[in-house]
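User: For my dataset I need records formatted as: sequence, then structure tokens, nothing else. Please produce one.
Assistant:
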Amino acid sequence: MSSRTVIRNGLVITASDEIHADVLIEDGRIAALAASGTPAAEAWTAERTIDATGKYVIPGGVDAHTHMELPFGGTFASDTFETGTRAAAWGGTTTIVDFAVQSVGHTLREGLDAWHAKAEGNCAIDYAFHMIVSDVNEETLKEMDLLVEEGVTSFKQFMAYPGVFYSDDGQILRAMQRSAENGGLIMMHAENGIAIDVLVEQALARGETDPRYHGEVRKALLEAEATHRAIKLAQVAGAPLYVVHVSAMEAVTELARARDEGLNVFGETCPQYLFLSTDNLAEPGFEGAKYVCSTPLRPKEHQAALWRGLRTNDLQVVSTDHCPFCFVGQKELGRGDFSKIPNGLPGVENRMDLLHQAVVDGHLSRRRWIEIACATPARMFGMYPKKGTIAPGADADVVIYDPHAEQTVSAETHHMNVDYSAYEGRRITGRVETVLSRGELVITEREYTGHAGHGAYTPRSTCQYLT
């Protein structure tokens, strides 16, 4: 049975165009676009018509950095694949790329299989996986080739967290050399974890235990140093590099310099670095624990450099690094010792709205909003034009967005499985109204109409963003 939906009278916004057009969806895909009111558009018939008058019609968001059910710091991220993908849909995101974890002493395959088991049958929207490589050896390197062939084409390494995820320079170089051969993309958590651990130990010895010290010991210079080192290792290996959650202006400088040299080096930042700061980490009592994440929040003066990087394309993507831990019972594990606070913030539901607010505030154009939140993450991770745009043949992942609606962000009304909001009380202009995933209504005029199991696993091709 063929199913057809027509979205009429909206302003269709992609990374490259803005056009008043009707959109025809057939059997889960975009079938055609035609200027609203033209005979071609008027001739379309469908079982379902959605009126988008006065609204934006945008591609579903692609969040290329989430951690559902991640084990960390003796606990687990509080969102499951079911709750997390439902919250993503409420926020206008229709595809996530989560991180499967290789544990030291285990194979990549074991980690990937474990994440497939967590996600399968539970997701409200489509999903894919990156692979965290924690144990580089000959077998791991061979497995990387196999994973690329089956659509897991990006591998994350950590210069931080010694004893947990950490890779030394030799392990990083070997993985980069392998990715240069097999077409994979190395994603790097760029912080000098060895040096940071010394500063953590010294701070605690001085009795500096409050959450704000988390930001003070994870110095911007140690993010910049690691970013520089990762770039040089990638250059030696002849491999592309994607640096995750860039937070410091000094790190942006390193990325810009590499890109000016023509290197395939890319950077991602996150809403928390654009909208929050060390002022939040320093909130009285233990409230600052809510904002502990790594890389850490920076002083406000770093925000201008991040916005500029997004405008100049020295930063290409905004993802969330969604990794929620409840304040009660999880963040509280670090009372009296900031190093024991689980690192991570909730945000998968807030990204598209916060970035629209950036459009309202003049930081970004509408098309750049779609580029950094939808199109480029899809291209960077091998899903374009199936994902990230509205064009014939693309999956019908479509959001009807009301640019005039006003909302106040709050844990009282969000759908993430966490007991606080990092953006509590923030007023935002713009709100998701209706969301389709592969042509099926997941959010219908601010009501959840999706279901666990609709979301399909999406194998990916290699990076489509290389120069």
